[in-house]
Amino acid sequence: MTHKFESTYYRTYDGQIKGPQDRCHEWSDISSHEFFVAVDEPYKKEYSSYMDSTTFLKAYDSVPEEKRCFFEQIGEGKACKEYYDIDWTLASSADESEIKRLEHQVFAAFLRVRNQHASEFALDEEHCRVLSASNSKKLSLHIVIPTYVFENNHQHQKAFFPAFQRFWCSALCNDEDAALLKRIDDGVYSRNRIIRILGSHKFLDPSRPLKRAEWHEPSMLADEEEFLITSIGLDSIKVTNDLYEVAAARALSTVTRKPREAIQSSLPKHIVDAVTAKFEQTEHAVQFFEMQGYIDRPMDFHLERKVQGYCIVCERGHDRENAFLRLVRSGAIFLHCYRSSIPGKEVCKRDFALAVEMEAAVALRTRHGLSHVDIPERAQYLTHFHLAPPLEPLKLVETVNQPPSLLIRCDTGGGKTVYLEALVKANKESKFVAITPRRTHADMLEKRFHRFENYQDRLRGVIACERLVIQTESLHRIDMKYYRDDTILILDETSSLIKQMCSDKTHGNMHNLNLQIFERLIHEQNGLSVSTQI
Which GO MF term does the entry hold, naming one (predicted)? Predict the structure, then answer.
């Protein structure tokens, strides 16, 4: 506890039973204080309170600018003005005039969509107070609306925000507005939240103090109290349920999900997970519940609509129409609408690694949960359900004229390397070439596998040894005449390896030659081709 800035400040110390915020609130109850603050100090924040916001501002005026690291506490159950925090990392550096233009553009988009969302409570820019902490690399805006006051920060304001958020993907909001407004931080409506105060900076970033937005004249002329979120004016309109319930009702009428029997896709789980993850990164995903598979359409995934939204296929808004995703062999993902016969629109660009996974899955005819290891039917089937020693059918017998391929897939720690070790030991007379995307993998495989040589130990010249582990960018050093008979090729971490093989930066002027050697190793070797993948 220290006395400074005309008040008592509480901080964390060893052996304390209650935290600094709790002790600050106890003291404020005794002292009948109504305005709460925190100050950013070198190690931890310190918390205090003042009789009211006017008392605080008088003390604040005497604090030197370099020591202004103050935050306003928005306590649990505390009434607050409507407020928003927008952060946007810029793709490239911007000068002062460009920053102002971008800030104005974001603010205009915010105000337009907010007014469409809650038309009964529409505002013009005169009612808003805008603060900026932007620099050449980051856009940072705080928007405070003194006109409307929520009775409770983490309930009423927090309930209003998700409804507002869902509105962005509706037919009434264009793509440009939605993209700009996605930068609103929804984490500022938590219990006992602290928000930076006008004129203050973060202790570790003094170059970005929070200032009035110079392009917004009403903010330049406003009193300091108007920027304080918990300082409620007498003419403010206090709302509890009205604002957010009316807005939420308009915000795309959330659809109740109908019960539907869960269907597992016949594709391997890791491919389904990859499709899910890629689609969830798109702006369209918020309109739908999680995707589900079809019994007879393994490459399609059903999407049941959750909220009203803009359909990029039909180019119009939809209330209840469902959709589906289609994964194509190139690794791209297309969104289709049931309402339209128009071809689907590509929502996830082609992914070469995913395309390789698709080809492997089709070749293996793998069903999720069936097995971890398969050899395709053109050779012989080897199914191994438990990837742990002892591993029995590892000695491979030539049963067909064409060399077999083996794909080993399981989660991290599931036994891929253990399986490969047993495979190496069971085929003592064979030559091995293990290709890996990283040097650390090469070092690991050298230690784990019996009698393997690391390409890093062969500093010069062409490499020809019975058991070799090598990184992708050094493939041009392999003596292809040596590795033609009875050679087992191991491709470690296939997806990463394929991405490495496609990188000009990785290979430099040896890229074409490395690709040729890679292709020849696959096509010309007469032994087994083994791939591992998580």
Answer: DNA replication origin binding
Which secondary structure element, helix H or strand E, spans residue 353, and what is its range? helix 352-364
d(CA 351, CA 1): 57
Q: Which helix (H) or strand (E) holds 316?
A: strand 316-318
In total, the chain counts a number of residues equal to 534
Q: Kindly compute the dihedral angle of the four CA atoms of residues 75, 78, 81, 83, in this order, to the nearest 10 degrees.
A: 40
Q: Which two tokens stand for residue 366?
A: 């793998």
Residue with tokens 């931890």: 44
Say if residue 456 is exposed, middle or buried (CB neighbours under 10 Å; 0-12, 13-18, 19+): middle
Structure tokens at 408: 């080993």
Three-state SS string over 270-303 comes to HHHHHHHHHHHCCCCHHHECCCEECCCCCCEEEE
For residue 334, what are the CA distances in angstroms to 249, 264, 283, 352? 31, 20, 14, 16
With a cut of 50, say whether residue 397 has pLDDT above it. Answer: no
**pLDDT digits 0-9 by tens, 236-283:** 887 755 444 544 444 444 444 444 455 566 677 767 888 888 888 888
Q: For residue 132, what is the enclosing H or E element?
A: strand 129-132
153 DSSP assignment: I
Q: Provide the H-helix boundaries in 433-503.
A: 439-448, 494-501
Terminal Cα-to-Cα distance of the chain (whole angstroms): 53
Residues 6+ away with beta carbon under 8 Å from 121? 148, 239, 243, 246, 247
pLDDT digits (tens, 9 = 90+) for 24-46: 988 998 999 999 999 998 778 89
3-state secondary structure of 122: coil
